[in-house]
């Protein structure tokens, strides 16, 4: 990944007097042209790197700006390792393994134990307890298409299961609430779309390249929008589902109701998603108010019961 490569390059330049472009290209398994672009990025970030030509030439950080390796504190190195280690659990690939190894190699021996201790204080694992079909091949395919600016063809299912054939230009991979999405410009819709990976099937990289368009990142924070749409309903829950209900609201919404129950002011929108949330609590949750939502819950329960009466 580019950020990891840039951090590693800075560390190498801090540690050594001069490094050749081809040596860096071989080390990071990229082209010399990519290394030159990375050097430009490092310069724009305020770290002056200059190139020297001829025998023994290469890149070096200008001596008057030379920084000591200790510019990266124990906390800095721990944060880098923590991020790379967590990311490697959900996006596998040689580039992450190599980045981890290279960053670790820059840790002074006297600080290795302290850095390792701090890096292991937080462990981020977003893989589900019980996984769906393996998404790794699809993730690797999208990563390749992103890197090479190639079109992707696939079938996409809507929430009702209806599939349509699509072709799209990939722009970004997104991990949101343990679910993978990818943003692309859909040729069928002539617009940018956020595709859910679990609804994507028969994914294939096309030979056709595309010229990246100007685009904005997809909107992922709907807190303000939901606040205007949600209303509070009154539900009574058993203590056994309290932890699950806390996924959707906070402690301040709870008030005790006897020894084994709580009254909860639950945020709710009248759509399928929120009704399904209430039903997921089973007989441990009763909707009390408003009455029209309680009546709708009752109607849906009768429909479910009718399926088993036939």
From TrEMBL:
PROSITE patterns: HTH_DEOR_2, WYL. Residues 2-57 form the HTH deoR-type domain. Pfam families: HTH_11, WCX, WYL. The keyword Nucleus does not apply. Keywords: Transcription, Transcription regulation. The keyword Chaperone does not apply. GO terms for molecular function: DNA-binding transcription factor activity. This is HTH deoR-type domain-containing protein. It comes from Syntrophobotulus glycolicus (strain DSM 8271 / FlGlyR).
């Amino acid at each position: 990944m580019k950020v990891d490569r840039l951090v590693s390059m800075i560390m190498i330049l801090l540690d050594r007097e001069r490094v050749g472009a081809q040596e860096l290209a071989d080390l990071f398994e990229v082209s010399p042209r990519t290394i030159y672009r990375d050097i430009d990025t490092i310069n724009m970030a305020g770290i002056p790197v200059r190139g020297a030509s001829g025998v023994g030439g290469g890149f070096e950080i200008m001596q008057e700006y030379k920084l000591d390796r200790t510019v990266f504190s124990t906390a800095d190195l721990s944060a880098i390792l923590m991020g790379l280690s967590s990311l490697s659990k959900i996006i596998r690939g040689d580039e992450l393994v190599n980045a981890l190894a290279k960053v670790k190699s820059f840790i002074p021996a006297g600080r290795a134990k302290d850095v390792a201790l701090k890096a292991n204080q937080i462990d981020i694992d977003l893989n589900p307890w019980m996984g769906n079909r393996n998404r790794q091949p699809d993730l690797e395919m999208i990563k390749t298409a992103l890197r090479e600016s190639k079109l992707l063809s696939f079938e996409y299912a809507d929430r009702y299961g209806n599939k349509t054939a699509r072709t799209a230009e990939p722009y970004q991979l997104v991990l949101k609430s343990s679910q993978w999405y990818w943003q692309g410009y859909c040729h069928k819709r002539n617009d940018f779309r956020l595709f859910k990976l679990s609804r994507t099937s028969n994914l294939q990289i096309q030979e056709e390249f595309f010229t990246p368009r100007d685009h904005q990142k997809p909107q992922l924070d709907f807190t303000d929008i939901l606040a205007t749409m949600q209303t509070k309903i009154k539900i009574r829950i058993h203590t056994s589902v309290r932890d699950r209900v806390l996924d959707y609201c906070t402690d301040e919404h709870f008030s005790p109701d006897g020894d084994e129950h709580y009254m909860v002011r639950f945020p709710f929108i009248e759509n399928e998603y929120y009704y399904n949330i209430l039903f997921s609590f089973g007989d441990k949750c009763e909707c009390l108010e408003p009455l029209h939502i309680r009546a709708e819950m009752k109607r849906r329960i009768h429909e479910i019961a009718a399926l088993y009466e036939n």
